[in-house]
Design brief:
By secondary structure, the chain is of the alpha+beta class. Helix 2 crosses helix 4.
């Protein structure tokens, strides 16, 4: 996923496609009566950056999006805590779902995981165009990735070992080292990817 974890900071060379992201953050911020200063204080993201994101004047990194979303999720948690009987149903439209692009621009990862689990569980909807390659650095020790191919065929390379994963098949592999997902075919491929960042079985 081209994402490196250093302590609690997540960095990425990939850029999140803003799309409706700015409007979504602004809508959530206002829904919970947060000023730009409030959200900046809670998220650790500069007020000026949040303002630019809301106006879709900048492409924030995944690290920035996660910090903002975490701050907003904490607000949601406090709201829910005030009424234990209140139902919790959260729906994200396609436009509201953040997307990552591989460096070659041919692999798209829709971030469909819940922000509150991001430190130990991440999951993505993966679309890989023909020739697409997602080259990722290793995550923290003991991490495991599970890739289930829904359509087409993908190739997974980890530590020099290459495995072909076809439609309906799942590959599980250590992702605490460099790992690469490729589409070497001439047809698009789609997969569901889950990353377990604290897989105790490998400790």
């Amino acid at each position: 996923m081209a994402v490196k974890e250093r302590g609690n900071t997540l960095e990425t060379g990939a850029q999140v496609i803003t799309g409706q992201l700015g409007k979504t953050i602004q809508r959530l911020r206002k829904a919970y009566n947060l000023s730009l200063s409030d959200l900046a204080e809670q998220s650790g993201v500069a007020k000026s950056i949040i303002s630019q994101i809301e106006r879709n004047e900048t492409n924030p990194t995944l690290a920035t999006v996660w910090r903002l979303s975490q701050a907003l999720d904490m607000t949601v948690e406090r709201v829910l805590a005030s009424s234990d009987d209140a139902p919790f149903v959260e729906k994200l439209s396609r436009a509201d779902t953040p997307i990552l692009l591989s460096e070659d621009g041919l692999v798209r990862l829709s971030i469909i995981g819940w922000i509150k689990t991001v430190e130990w569980l991440q999951y993505y909807d993966v679309d890989a165009a023909p020739g697409g390659e997602l080259d990722s650095d290793g995550h923290q020790r003991g991490s495991v990735e599970c890739l289930t191919v829904i359509a087409g065929t993908l190739e997974v390379e980890v530590g020099g070992v290459v495995e072909t994963v076809k439609e309906g098949e799942t590959a599980r592999y250590r992702c605490d080292r460099r790992h690469v997902i490729r589409n070497r075919t001439d047809t698009p491929a789609r997969a569901f990817m889950v990353c377990l960042l604290k897989a105790a079985v490998l400790e």
